[in-house]
Amino acid sequence: MIRKGLLAIFITIALATPVLASSGSSSKPLAGTYPIILSHGLFGWGENSGGIISIVNYWGGSDDYLRSQGATVFAPGKTAANSNEVRAAELKAAILTYAAATNYTGKFHILGHSQGGLDSRYMVSNLGLSGRTATLTTLNTPHYGSPIADIVKTVLPSWIQPFVASIVETLVKIVYGGTNQQNALAALSSLSKEGLTSFNSYTPNRSGVKYFSYGSSITIPDLIQHPLMGILHPACGAGGLFQGQGFTNDGLVPLSSQKWGTWKGGPSYGIFTTGIDHLQASNTLRSGSLWYDVEGFYMNMASNMKANQ
Fold this sequence. Notes:
Layout: H1 2-24, E1 36-39, H2 62-68, E2 73-74, H3 84-102, E3 108-113, H4 115-126, E4 133-139, H5 147-155, H6 161-176, H7 184-190, H8 193-201, E5 210-214, H9 229-242, E6 262-263, H10 278-282, H11 294-307
Parallel strand pairs: 1-2, 1-3, 3-4, 4-5, 5-6
Organism: Leptospira montravelensis
InterPro entries: AB_hydrolase_fold
Keywords: Signal
């Protein structure tokens, strides 16, 4: 009798265990989110890019983190240096190819870093992707221009600009590989204040698409935490003051220029971190991981996408 009783108890526990485990578990937080498209910035690259640069991850592993949390993520490559319009057409082609390959007919969320936010806006507004876009989120995007682009245009005489551009384009082709036609001068014009004033006039927000923006700035341009952006920060600040955009910036983009749609702020960080710069915001080359909670920040952006689909 004792053996039969123990056997009955054992069988009951064994049958109940899966039920208990199932009831106590929860689905991944980003499960059910529309696919997220990551749109890289100037001199950026994607998961399908070639060349030497492809051995490292532009998003610093943030794309893989979002996947681990239940999201479907596609981070396509585009021309590293070109106009917003050219890159937008390439982004559209990449998204539609991806959708066809995966038999997906629904909507997407788009997250664009830096110039990637501009080409995404153009694609949604002018290339017929508004119906496939639930939210468009921009990160440290120069919606009203970057003073650094204007400074470069001013410092370099017009006669030497094509020569410098050809050097830059040659280097880009070597590092990035591929056959895409680079156009550094077109990229420069697309990021200037004048260029963005014109761009915004023919790139309006589309109804049915929810627009959000995130960004950041450097508080102290120390070269330990900001080895590259710290050098550019004072020039960007001075240019921002001259252009009426304010001094506060991330090394390339004034904080005031980063705001578009519903402004959501930026990542939180400790008292020993001197702000988050332009590259750290996207965690490019994992540059942000040492200074703030990158995974938490990307989860925050992705959760906002899911809540607004």
